Amino acid sequence: xxxxxxxxxxxxxxxxxxxxxxxxxxxxxxxxxxxxxxxxxxxxxxxxxxxxxxxxxxxxxxxxxxxxxxxxxxxxxxxxxxxxxxxxxxxxxxxxxxxxxxxxxxxxxxxxxxxxxxxxxxxxxxxxxxxxxxxxxxxxxxxxxxxxxxxxxxxxxxxxxxxxxxxxxxxxxxxxxxxxxxxxxxxxxxxxxxxxxxxxxxxxxxxxxxxxxxxxxxxxxxxxxxxxxxxxxxxxxxxxxxxxxxxxxxxxxxxxxxxxxxxxxxxxxxxxxxxxxxxxxxxxxxxxxxxxxxxxxxxxxxxxxxxxxxxxxxxxxxxxxxxxxxxxxxxxxxxxxxxxxxxxx
Length: 345
Fold this sequence. Notes:
The chain is α/β, with parallel strands linked by helices. It contains eleven helices and 13 strands. It has a seven-stranded mixed beta sheet. The radius of gyration is 20 Å and the shape is globular. The two termini are 34 Å apart.
């Protein structure tokens, strides 16, 4: 059994990591850390874990983490992650980082959208952890940058189209909606029940921090620099992301043809489910799972294609994908610990 630590375990992503790792056949969670809950029973922080763990939350201390674990997930806020990741690597640990600190290859781009980067020397080494696109690179990595939730939904929606040069990459428009858990667990007025319930709003218009990450991945796929129009929205639900992606077709195509193209592209990827022609995905049908569901419609009237992509933002958009990456890094079955069916209703 590989000993695993969850650094920053008191957030929604932390408890999701524990939920999946607790059923993993090859690992044992031996360390959970939390600055605000250090010394507390982890099951007291998350009563859903009552009877499932006797772990006590440790402080965020590299020496303690390195002593207790061989593999580390860092589920820390941006900037905070880069304060501990270099030390964990120096201690010989493999790391999956769930912050944005190592996702962008260019330190100047990171600093334009976030803040100063204190370990830019690791950006070239860090592998972008979207297994469906970078599986081989993930398998040989010691540092994997787990993708953001919106970028995961968008990249999987558009990868087959860009790979086959079926669309004009200069025409991409992305309209995304996320549940409120994407804002994290800390108390914020904008995430309060009465602020969110019965409402629906756009935010971060033309300024959301996931924009350069989306453009980086799509540019890699297209082989040319790509700029997108990306608008996120807040849904009054706990979990789920639905991204609707629009692009102009380079040639005539019908929906059935493109659905078949998607199925062939993702034939070896068990966590991507392509809906049959005439069917579109729903966030209700992937909740709690590591699936990404995709649906495709070609519009001959406008010459455009519409791809609808849904994921659970806490699973395929965070913790589940992180476990998927760990499995590849450690040579386990890629779906180990992740085989559960979605929750419904």
